[in-house]
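Ligand: flavin-adenine dinucleotide. Inputs:
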Amino acid sequence: MSKKVLIIGSGLGGLTTALRLARRGYKVEMVEKAGQPGGRLNQIKKDGFTFDMGPTFFSMTYEFKDFVKDAEIDMPFKFKELKTLYAVSFRGSDKKYFIHKNIDRLAKEFEAIEPDFKRKMGKFLRSGGSFFHDVEDKILKRNYNHFLDYLLAMTTVHPKYLPKLWRSVWDELNQYFDSREVKEIFSLVAFFLGATPFDTPAIYTLLSYTELVHDGYHNVEGGMYRIVEGLTDEMKKKNIKIHYNTEIVDFNEENGQLKSFIDQNGKEWIADLYVVNSDAAFFRGNVLKRPSFSEEKLDKMRWSLAPFTLYLGIDRKIDDVPLHNYFLGDNFEEYSKKVFKSSVTFEKPYYYLNVVSRSDPNSAPEGMDALFVLCPVPDLRFKPDWTDRDEIAANIISDLSERIKVDLSRHIVSQTIMTPVEWRDAFNLYKGSGLGLGHDLKQIGSFRPKNFDEKFGNIFYVGASTLPGTGLPMAVISSKLVVERITKKYGLLHA
Ligand SMILES: Cc1cc2nc3c(=O)[nH]c(=O)nc-3n(C[C@H](O)[C@H](O)[C@H](O)COP(=O)(O)OP(=O)(O)OC[C@H]3O[C@@H](n4cnc5c(N)ncnc54)[C@H](O)[C@@H]3O)c2cc1C
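Predicted complex:
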């Protein structure tokens, strides 16, 4: 007999779980706090411009291919591989370093500042690559019932990788490269996990391998939100309904099982089982009132960067600026050690710029450009007050204008700012943390909030703060893991 599943949240983890479960005969329904689907993978339409709200590119496309095969649907969007991943520049210099996937082109970028770059980079990438292939199936893409499972899995990893556990990304780079610029550029992968290279374990240098060698980076034709549109179109075909503007705030229990969830209007939502796509740590504390996830306990956990994002429409084109750009300063170590923990001043910010309309011309009116800026900032534990948002935005715009040599302030026709406050309120992101729980050794594997509930046998979790971690491909893997767990318990239920 078919079982009814209620999925709470329509982020990428929730959407892919819905389609995987529907294919297995489960009757799926979803509730979503926001007015449209996607969670952080969302979209803003304003003043004739269209912006992707969060993610702008991603790796491991084969996880999406594996997903569509599993859900028995056609790929509902098209990837575009980037030959040049991004450009990086440092304050005070006009020089741009282009990060090409082709190792010979890449070596040319750095030959002047890092002698023997090609050989050193080859060695660095081989080390990251062999580690990635050793752990991908054995550690990353698997469920853990308890710590012992995890420990046993860890013992199968080759001991030569052990030092990567206690070295930082920065220490690892120091072993291969001498140039400050090279080390700063290739440590940016730590920021993709929402932390700094100084407090991220060296195991994550495998991300350099995934971006430069393995599957590379991809955009989506028509913008990243095509992923969500494509998935929700498939869901309509399978009669999976999403109820928007519906936030789960409470619950009822009966005989040790969860009986129902309750939304903000007091309506009861009843199903046989529940999958929570809301942040797996925050939901346990905020809705299920678990003492081990109280605000005091959550505050002590390591949370990833908070985003300060700007969505700018300008009445001209900036054709000289590459698609994806990192604008770094001249005090990398000092800045990155401070930026997540204290109210640094943002007069000299570090930020990422995406010229959205370069890859998706329909996102801006003719002759104009749509720009997305992401500046990592402290979360609301460290900087609760964002009334200086306009001043911070003006600083970033002024710095960017100087660096691209276009006075943007004279050309902005549309401006939207999202501080950690808006990110928190939009998707229930704890204290505005953009990527969810951090990825230090105490918060990965069996130490991460589990994808099954500690108390109620009929609640499961999917998304960035449960297994395996943050980012779009991880959300897709997370749905695979939770569905594996559910079908192990409830079986394949073809109606
Ligand atoms: C600024 C930014 C840039 C990023 N860039 C990239 C990138 O370039 N590449 C990449 O791979 N990743 C990127 N990421 C990370 C990526 O967006 C996330 O890891 C991924 O989208 C998380 O998906 P999720 O399944 O955890 O769901 P989420 O996106 O967290 O969605 C959860 C959903 O649950 C809803 N919800 C929460 N609580 C409740 C409740 N109580 N009741 C009902 N609904 C609820 C929320 O409204 C939300 O829609 C970025 C993230 C941010 C913030």
